[in-house]
């Protein structure tokens, strides 16, 4: 699955090539925002070629979620995780109380509610022009419902750590 994620996010990055962005394909992907995952036919020609042959519905839905969100906010980084990006946003705003409440709500959310929470947070990052490590986000949301909650703990550690996330060269992983 990891190879599929790398290929898929690589394709998304190519769609947003600064020299020649594919605005049509990005618009097709954005049509999936706020809609039931996997039900917007405009997205199929872009996403289906990247789906593994054997895939659970939950995993397939995440391809549609990441595709739509990337098309909405295609700013990418290879550093950190979603908690790091939100920490940068909090530092840029000079406040973290309301963002902290939202983040705690995200960390507590059930997998079924994750797409709505992630979309809200991507919107916040978009408003602050904060990049997202899309590969790490994709890998993390696939493991969201792990009983150890290691993804949530990793994001929390990144968000509340004293370390400056812009200097953090961590690469995701468990």
Explain this structure.
There is one protein chain. The protein has 174 residues and is mostly helical. It has two domains: 71 residues, no CATH class; 86 residues, Peroxidase, domain 1, CATH 1.10.520.40. The chain has nine helices and no strands. α1 runs antiparallel to α8.
Strands, helices and their partners?
Elements lengths: L1 H14 L7 H8 L13 H4 L9 H16 L9 H12 L3 H12 L5 H14 L6 H9 L7 H11 L14
The poorly predicted ranges are: 167-174
CA-based shape: globular
What count of structural domains?
Answer: 2
Total of helices:
9
Query: Any idea what the radius of gyration is?
Result: 15 Å
The succession of helices and strands, N to C, reads HHHHHHHHH
Helical fraction: 55-70%
Question: What keyword list fits this structure?
Answer:
globular; Peroxidase, domain 1; 2 domains; 9 helices; disordered C terminus; single chain; mainly alpha
């Amino acid at each position: 699955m990891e190879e599929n994620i790398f290929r898929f996010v690589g394709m998304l990055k190519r769609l947003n090539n600064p020299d020649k962005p594919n605005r049509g394909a990005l618009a097709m992907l954005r049509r999936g925002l706020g809609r039931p995952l996997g039900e917007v036919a405009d997205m199929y020609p872009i996403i289906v070629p990247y789906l593994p042959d054997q895939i659970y519905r939950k995993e397939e839905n995440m391809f549609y979620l990441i595709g739509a969100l990337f098309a909405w906010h295609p700013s990418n980084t290879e550093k950190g995780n979603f908690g790091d990006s939100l920490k940068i946003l909090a530092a840029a705003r000079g406040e973290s109380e309301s963002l902290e409440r939202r983040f705690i709500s995200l960390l507590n959310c059930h997998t079924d509610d994750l797409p709505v929470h992630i979309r809200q947070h991507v919107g916040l990052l978009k408003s602050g022009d904060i990049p997202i490590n899309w590969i790490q986000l994709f890998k993390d949301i696939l493991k969201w419902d792990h009983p150890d909650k290691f993804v949530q703990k990793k994001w929390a550690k990144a968000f509340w750590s004293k370390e400056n996330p812009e200097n953090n060269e961590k690469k995701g992983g468990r």
